[in-house]
Design a protein that fits this description.
By secondary structure, this protein is α+β, with helices and mostly antiparallel strands. The protein is built from 9 helices and 13 strands.
């Protein structure tokens, strides 16, 4: 039995196929579903028995089956065809269509792949899928069990469909690469912050276990010497008093350094209560706290805590405010930290990169912390109208 062409002599049927292809492309950027839908539409519209969509891998050395009609949809992702081998490999290397009406085993370009069961099909067309500016992305193949005489018009139609699909596949590949890069950047940011905090934790432990303990010991001996000193000269007693005072100051500085390196309240209380504790430590300004419990990765909690710490320090140092408000909100998509004050405010442009005053308010460090965890920092201020700092981070 011999068939003729793709059976799309009717322009309406051809247009319906193209509309279906466009709708499949518009459905989303995922490579697998797109290729599978395209293969099904082509096979149904052209009355061919099977359709394959092979896509060039990132290295450019082989074609991978990413879309197929049943029963070959089970082989998607498992079959790879080397460039230059087989009909699809020849089309990929030469970027020219191939039509085989019968006796494909006699064609020197043909290679038998057991998984594709070529012995079950007589006629085939393979066309390159290419677009501008994306270039070549793969091949599109249709096969029939019965002998089919494909026309030049059939080849042009399949090539046009291939161009449409190529543009979509190129966008899908860019989308996949971008998503992979974003995930890599997120992992890198997590690793950087984790490394920073690990080093801070180590330094804090070193200070606590080394310097602090020695200072405690020194203070003990000085106290004992002072208590035992009964007949020493006045000068010696005065020096002991100075030494004790210096010891107390050094201990205070060591404790402050430990807290600066690693906020222990995060380990002890969690983010919400740690923020409440931070607000209570601000003596110069009345801070109202409204925070929600959020279960977040450690590096995100640390970044938000440090941003809140910097923002409240700005309120004390620069705002001349009497009241401030600290809020933490969590929803399904985003975590939002907001610090608002009723202070003198400033010209918002002064905090944009390149403007005088940006570094004085520490906005750069807060913005960097937000960006490291995939978020962003927003600052709203006007002279005599207070300031609002908002850090928004995508919910992991």
């Amino acid at each position: 039995m011999t068939g003729h062409g793709l059976g799309l002599a009717d322009p309406e049927r051809e247009n319906a196929l193209l509309v279906g292809i466009i709708e499949a492309i518009s459905a989303g950027p995922e490579l697998g579903p797109l290729a599978g839908n395209v293969a099904r539409l082509i096979s149904e519209a052209t009355a061919t028995d099977v359709c394959f969509v092979h896509v060039l891998d990132d290295a450019g050395g082989s074609l991978t089956l990413v879309g197929a009609t049943p029963p070959f949809d089970r082989e998607v992702g498992l079959i790879q065809l080397p460039i230059g081998e087989g009909v699809s490999g020849w089309v990929a290397s030469h970027q020219q269509p191939v039509v085989i009406v019968e006796n494909k085993e006699d064609d020197p370009r043909y290679r038998y792949f057991p998984q594709l069961r070529g012995q079950d099909y007589t006629s085939m067309v393979s066309v390159p899928m290419a677009s501008h500016p994306g270039g070549f992305v793969g091949t599109l193949n249709v096969h029939t069990r019965d002998r089919r005489e494909f026309t030049d018009r059939d080849v042009r139609l399949l090539t046009s469909i291939g161009s449409l699909v190529a543009a979509a596949l190129h966008q899908a590949r860019l989308h996949r690469r971008l998503a992979t890069r974003e995930r890599a950047l997120e992992r890198f940011a997590e690793q950087v912050i984790a490394a920073q905090e690990s080093e801070r934790r180590r330094l804090a432990a070193d200070i606590h276990d080394g310097i602090t303990q020695r200072l405690f010991s020194l203070r003990f001996h000085l106290d004992a010497a002072s208590d035992a000193l009964t007949e020493a000269p006045d000068f010696t007693a005065e020096q002991l008093v100075h030494a004790r005072r210096l010891t107390r100051l050094t201990l205070d500085e060591a404790r402050a350094a430990i807290n600066g390196l690693r906020p222990p309240v995060l380990d002890d209380l969690g983010l919400a209560d740690a923020l409440a504790s931070l607000a209570r430590s601000i003596a110069a300004v009345e801070v109202t706290v409204d925070v929600e419990e959020c279960r977040l990765p450690e590096h995100v909690e640390i970044a938000l805590y440090r941003i809140a710490q910097e923002a409240l320090q700005n309120v004390v140092k620069h705002a001349q405010a009497s009241q401030a408000r600290l809020e933490l909100r969590c929803d399904r998509d985003e975590v939002s930290l907001q610090v608002t004050d009723d202070g003198r405010g400033f010209d918002g442009l002064a905090l944009l990169p390149g403007h005088v005053g940006a570094s004085g308010y520490g906005m750069g460090s807060m913005a960097e912390r937000a960006e490291l965890v995939g978020g962003r920092l927003e600052v709203w201020s006007r002279p005599d109208q207070g300031t609002t700092v908002i850090a928004k981070v995508p919910f992991p």
